[in-house]
Amino acid sequence: MRVLVVGNGAREDALSWRLAQSPSCEAIFAAPGNAGTATRGDNWNVAATDGKALVERCRDERIDLVVLGPETAVAAGVGDRLREAGIAVFGPNRSAGRLESSKVFAKRFMERHGVPSARFVVAHSHDAAKKALDDWNGAVVVKADGLAAGKGVVVVPDVDSARAVLGEWYSGNKLPGGGSDVLLEEKLEGREVSVFALADGRAMVPLSAACDYKRAGDGDTGPNTGGMGAYSPPRGFPDDMYDRVRERILAPVLRGLLAEGESYVGVLYCGLMWTKDGPYVIEFNARFGDPETQVLVPRIGGDFALLLKSAAEGAMDLSHATFSPQSCVGVVLATGDYPRSSTPLTGLAGDVSLGEGCHAFWGGSRRHGDAVDVSGGRVLTVTALGDDLAAARSRAYDAVKSLASRLGTDALTYRRDIAANL
Question: Which domains, ranges and CATH numbers included, belong to the chain?
Answer without folding.
Answer: 2-91 (3.40.50.20), 120-185 (3.30.1490.20), 191-323 (3.30.470.20), 327-413 (3.90.600.10)
